[in-house]
Design brief:
151 residues, mainly alpha, 3-stranded antiparallel β-sheet, 4 helices, 74% helix, globular
Length: 151
Amino acid sequence: MNAHPYLRAYLAGIFLPTLALPVMLTVFIVVRIVLKVPVPIEQALIFPMAVVPSLFGLWNMLWLGSHDHTHLPIGLHGAILPLVLMPLGATTASCLGALVLGSHGATWFNAWELPYTLIVPCFLAALAGYYLVWKYIVGTFNRVLGVARGI
């Protein structure tokens, strides 16, 4: 099954975020309406809902195209993605005024302040989470769709 491997890689990559992000949006909107959280959470999710599935698909296509040269395991390749997404997201949020970087931490929507001492553990947790998602979920979809064997 060698027909259109990059299309199949793209589809394997977008599967999980395409399913997960609308569920997350629903939960956040219910939390906002029921618990009356005064932060515009849905505004923080609209951009990721538009960008993250496509980036997962493109990242999986990049893995497929570069795997013969780099021999990088898919989990490690996936763990590199937050190194791209987080600075891109922080820069975009800063430019749009949703994120303000202060001397002690980052403030989201002038409501939530996250100290810098918590950003590093969150970033490391994201790296571990992406590693596991890519190794076990995206890798499984790659095998199911015949994108790559032996990963």
